[in-house]
Amino acid sequence: MKRAWRMPAVLPAIVLLAFLAGCSTGGIPRRISEPAASLQQLTVQADGRWSIELRLQNYSSIPMRFERVSLALQVGEDAAGTLVAEPGLTIGPESADVVTVAFDPSANARLLLAGRLADGGGIGYRIEGTIDAAPADRGKVRDYEIERDSRLSPVPGLPGVLR
Predict the structure, then answer these.
(1) Domain Late embryogenesis abundant protein LEA-2 subgroup, which positions (predicted)?
(2) Residues 30-73 pLDDT 10s
(3) More exposed terminus of the chain, fewer Cβ within 10 Å: N or C?
């Protein structure tokens, strides 16, 4: 009688380990991409100043440290002023976080937004400037140029709040 060949029980484990070793690239590659910024929410305070929730987006494959933000803000066709913040915030890979910035807008921007809110309408905005960021583990801080055009709309039930 002919004896059937049997595969040793350890062979599948050896094949799997060899496959996994071949797939290894020594870790996740370090890819640093330009960050982005947008206004997540704008709240008009009782004194006429604005509280702006600025969303900072890290598109890199590694955590990035956001040191400084300086963005010229335009609402409608009017210059509102410059958003300046020093968040000192580390944002994980391909993630985002929000920084609240107190903002004293120009008189024209304040009046324009008050009119739009009274009419129940939204408003377009533009931010343009720089974000200073660096890899969280090490690295030199670099200026990234930012430009974004978008729109904010009133939030139903929350007077003076736009998203």
Answers:
(1) 54-133
(2) 899 999 999 999 999 999 999 999 999 999 999 999 999 999 99
(3) N
Identify each DSSP E strand in 16-122 by its residue range.
36-44, 50-58, 64-75, 78-85, 89-91, 95-103
Q: Is the pLDDT of residue 13 over 90?
A: no
Closest by Cα among 83, 84, 82, 79 to 112: 79
What whole-number distance in Å separates Cα of residue 118 and Cα of residue 153?
A: 12
> How far apart, in whole angstroms, are the C-alpha atoms of residue 106 and residue 79?
7
Q: Where are the domains of the chain?
A: 36-151
pLDDT tens-digit map of 105-151? 999 999 999 999 999 999 999 999 999 999 998 889 999 999 999 99
Arch. (CATH architecture) of 36-151: Sandwich (2.60)
Identify the burial level of 80 via C-beta atoms within 10 angstroms of its C-beta, where 0-12 means exposed, 13-18 middle and 19 or more buried.
buried
